[in-house]
Amino acid sequence: MMHLAETLNFSGRKVVAAWASVPFPALHGYSLPDTLCAYQQDVPWKLLSSCREQKVSCCFAQSVVLRGIRKESHISCPGKQPTSPLHTCESTEQILQYYLHTMFPGAFSTSHVLEQPCNTLPPYPQFFSPLLTRQGFLLDRPPSYSPAAVDSIPVLAALQSSPVLHTLLYSLYKDLQKLNTGRWASFFSAGVEQDDFQEALQELRTLSQCYETGFEADESEEEADSD
Hints:
Radius of gyration: 22 Å
Largest sheet: 5 strands, mixed
Shape: elongated
Organism: Ciconia maguari
Number of domains: 2
Strand order of the largest sheet: 2-1-7-3-4
Order of helices and strands: HEHEEHEEEEHHHH
InterPro entries: DML1/Misato
Helix content: 25-40%
Number of helices: 7
Protein name: MSTO1 protein
């Protein structure tokens, strides 16, 4: 994980944010391009790290893995005219890569597609919606019968070097700056020097600035200052 984070970071950045979709909202009976075409305005995965999500998707670099999608799922309807550039891709790997380049233009993106899904057999908790099939694919409407337990699910996970980390790191810097270090004598008696603490604090602020992207960064700093 550490080496992957290092690969995704440059220009002084060191931290990555985690995203996931559990399960990935793949529609039963639809191809992967059909599913992704439904998410042209926003990506179908959510932020797991304790950052405030931005309205506009943006990242500097990312690594994305999609599991539980069969290789033939890129085929929508044989002989049918492609309805989008995603439908012209020749493999699931190309579909995901094209989608990432479309949603995150200019970002360095790596992607992998694995056929093996994530198993959800006992003792995995069955907290899934009745709209899921046993293989974890979404139905258009609830089934007329009692749904069976979900055996497996498709999952997408991503690590991103992203501007959302600016708010997190800058807020942490502001919180630490408010500390009255004179009340933590035991902390400094352990060997930490006041100068070292202040240096680390400034390094944290500098690190947060590495994730600035203009308006979003100014907005997040104003919010942190108001706190």
